[in-house]
Amino acid sequence: MLVDYVEFYKFQAVATLTRAIVDPDAVSKTDIVKVAVNVPLSREFDYLPAAGAPLPQPGSRVLVPFGHRRQTGVVTALAGESELPGNKVRRCVATLDREPVLSGDDLWLIRFTSNYYHHPVGEVVAAALPALLRQGKALHPVLVHVVATDAGEKTDLDALARRAPRQAELLELLLDAGGNGVDVETLTEQLPTWRRAAKPLREKGLIGQHEARIYASQEDEPTAGQPGPTLNADQSRAVDAVRAHQGFGAFVLDGVTGSGKTEVYLRLMEQVIGAGKQVLVLVPEIGLTPQLVSRLKRRLGLAPAVLHSGLTDLERLGAWRRARSGMAPFVVGTRSAVFTPLPNVGLIIVDEEHDHSLKQQEGLRYSARDLAIVRAKHIGIPVVLGSATPTLEMLHHCRTGSYVHLELPHRAGGAKPPALRLVDLNRTVARDGVSEPLAAAIAEHLGAGGQVLMFLNRRGFAPTLICASCGHIAECPRCDSRMTVHAHDRQLRCHHCGVYRPLDDTCSECGAQVRPLGEGTQRLEEALQERFPTRRVIRIDSDSTQKKGAMTEALSLAERGDAEILVGTQMLSKGHHFPNLTLVGIINADQGLFGADFRSSERLAQSIIQVAGRAGREDRPGEVLVQTAFPDNDFWARLIDGGYRQVSEDALAEREATRWPPFTRLALLRSAAHRQRDAHAFLEAVRQRILDMQVDGLRVLGPVDAPMARKAGRYRAQLLLQSADRQALHAVLARLRPALEEDPAARKVRWSLDVDPIELF
After folding, report:
1. Residue 392: CA count within 13 A, CB half-sphere
2. Please, which residues bridge with residue 716 across strands?
3. Is 70 exceeded by the pLDDT of residue 134?
4. In angstroms, rounded to a whole number, what is the distance separating the alpha carbons of residues 25 and 78?
5. Rounded-to-integer distance, Cα 593 and Cα 573, Å
6. Contact at 8 Å (CB) between 6 and 374?
7. Are 293 and 219 in contact (CB under 8 A)?
8. CA dist 598 → 214, 604, 644, 655 (Å)
9. Which helix (H) or strand (E) segment is 668 a member of?
10. CA-based diameter of the chain, in Å?
11. pTM of the prediction?
12. Nearest 5°: phi and psi at 705?
């Protein structure tokens, strides 16, 4: 975790700079503006203030000349002098904000993120700001009203209509509107060509315009919240533990599925919001947002600011603005919402903390969960990390006493955990992915009025198209990957680079017949509809929910029980509550049994426990059937007999013995190039550079090919750094990143640095 690194970070020179940000005496003596610009360089750039403009304060946006173009940047600090000669320091073009859009605490988090993940600060700033603010648009949109002047009111409209009917029509509309006039958007709707008529009217002094800024406002009037259920003893202990704690504290809310973790969140939120403070709630995916937001609004009677990638740029800015102003009592958002400015935050909640979606995998590779903990520590507030399957990192911190372990071992309301049993695929044949024991269980549960969920974490119709004669397999021309069959669109698609082509009818090698091999969610959906023709089957995956609102509509059908058979991927395993669901079938559980990654068993257990937890959450008992070709594997005995606790304890012991995280720290350097030798040569040079630093206890593993050596036409390689000393590892990375940015050899490849990677193989 990052919390111990915070203390180390505070002693760095950059922390001194951060403190200067909020020191008014230091600010008054400065005239050099330090600006973070969205470019891949690990430094800020020096500028003079715009001519005739006041000194922009840290956190304000400025328009600056950068190379041959202009860029929007953010002032991170002020300095008394620059290292550049005076004639080399250029002036800002303009200051874009009357007051800073980012506070001192916001800048602290940005600075910390840049330093911990060794990523250019300008790109971190860009990740923290809504798109419209990155583009230099106003924080508060300006609404332009066109009005009739005094001269316009005295104009003879009849005479004007004879000479210029369009001008008369526009002027009459403005006169009818009164002193406030009409805003330009309304004018465009009512008179699409009004601008042509406006120009001569403006030149004659008959019309004018005024501007009004739109400020944040409460979207909905608060309503009376609904009372919640009585807490059980475990829930009460969890709520009391957090409430009694003063200042920062990290609380791991370890509750079995259906144990009422959300109710614990709600009780804590009620108290914090009642005290006039704000709450930040992070969820891993957009799919969890509508259901959670709806429940929070019903209970709290308040409208949150919602932030996720499914919003338009204007919607996102509006929600961000409400949060920043303090008008939003709580914020619900996905990964990037961790950077949202909150002037009075009193509590941070991370739901499903184990979920990999909380770690950004491209560009700035940050963990929203880890930054949430760091942000809470910096401000001095509690952070609650909820999961039915906590990561080993969180459990390790609980063992050492760094975090507080709050357990909810029982389902709320007396509901029983689902019974889990294996279906041996060696003894029964699966047709289109469904074995006869599973088909019989589906029929039984549907006959009893229950709902069924079939889980298969593989979208498309089939993962492979194979020739029945020569065995040729359709492969992606740009990746070391097979093309996935999408029968509905009659396409072959690569799920890694996005390339697609028409579905083959015959083999390109021998001309014989080809056939799909294996199952995807589309094939499973069709097979189930064929087996149960009178039942409604819906598929919920990233293909079926691309349109806006499709996910919300599908989940609504599932929650109401209108869809009797659900077919879905990982999207359906996370936090959803389906009252009528009594059976879960896991179609291909063997994918994670033999993974090369040291996290394989942890992730497989998390996936199965999470999706199994959708069953039997109300008064009807639930059942989970797991199809496997390896029923004698030790993993199944540990999971069925001891649950996730046993799997996690065994995995922690194994990690400690083999010195993998959380007992050591990792950083991964990746490279990609059109030629394989270039990707390896770059990392070999990096390896030698690191070895020359002679750092004790640092292991350098590789370079080796990435598991998928070729992706999107580029060859990929990786270099792993491992150390038990986090500070020593970061000291190496702090020297390495700037050196690589200046290295001409680095320009031949695409390279990236991933601190605390969650994907190695």
Report:
1. 24
2. 672
3. yes
4. 11
5. 19
6. yes
7. no
8. 52, 11, 17, 8
9. strand 665-673
10. 95
11. 0.86
12. -65, 145
